[in-house]
Design goal:
Helices cover about 35% and strands about 25% of the residues. The protein has about 300 residues and is of the alpha/beta class. It folds into 2 domains: about 120 residues, 2-Layer Sandwich (Nucleotidyltransferase, domain 5); about 180 residues, 2-keto-3-deoxy-galactonokinase, C-terminal domain (Nucleotidyltransferase, domain 5), CATH 3.30.420. The protein has a 5-stranded mixed sheet with strand order 3-2-1-4-6, with helices on both faces. Strands 11-10-9-12-13 form a 5-stranded mixed sheet, sandwiched between helices. Strands 5-7-8 form a 3-stranded mixed sheet, with no helix packed on it.
Amino acid sequence: MSALMNSETSYADWIAVDWGTSNARAWAMRGDEAVAHATSDAGMGSLAPDQFEPALLAMIEPWLGRARMPVVACGMVGAKQGWCEAAYAAVPCPPVGGAPARPETRDSRLDVAILPGLSQSGPADVMRGEETQIAGFLAQDPDFDGVLCLPGTHTKWAQISAGEVVSFRTFMTGELYALISGQSVLRHSVGEGWDEDAFGDALSDAMARPEAMANRFFSLRAESLLTGLPPGAATARLSGLLIGAELAAARPYWLGQRIAMIGTARLTGIYGTALTLQGAQPETTDATNITLAGLTAAYHRLKDTP
């Protein structure tokens, strides 16, 4: 765990927490400003329900006084397997407009609110954590009307209008890449490096014929055996095939729309290149700052709600 607050810093007004499957991040907040930051590798996936409160205290204990401290948390901490399930809010709706879950705590100083995710009945889809990033984006650009792309392990495409999430789609592109590159026969072909031309060619190929993708995958292995296809080119082509198939399926979302991306520099760079090759002009926003902006917006909403 790391903390960025010196010993003279006073107690926070409230605490923001982004709690994922693998790790957790917390910020000590004075108003809308973060004055300290802590991280932990105690993600939801490694904790039983009764272990969340001790894990939280391990991160934020230095910031607590004697009074009850508001803690606003988002992410997988509110999943069915998390600390306390925060029921999904059904779209169309504001990104963080649903009622939070409030787990019971043994430490009387904690006043925890866990933000709900979003759900969609047809086609069935859910998100948990990304809705807070969407709220943060809209806090900074409240008049945005278009599509948000949140690339990651499970990439989200969300249609936004009038301050609400109207609909969304999830693509397991990142998880498929990890499985194919790490556990399939292609693990012998992919490697370090990147070939921009190979990525673009594979992207166009997949968008034109997504039904041939499984065949194109094996061609990567065959080319590495027969012609010595460089690992970096194989990596770029595998990414291009997967993202191309995703863009083909998500075309009704992004075609002709204003597009903004929220994510890491690496992933938004790859997706940005893919969209630019299709004639789109995506905007890019930093995921960490947007997450904190979303938690801040949720805190103010909860504070002003009787």
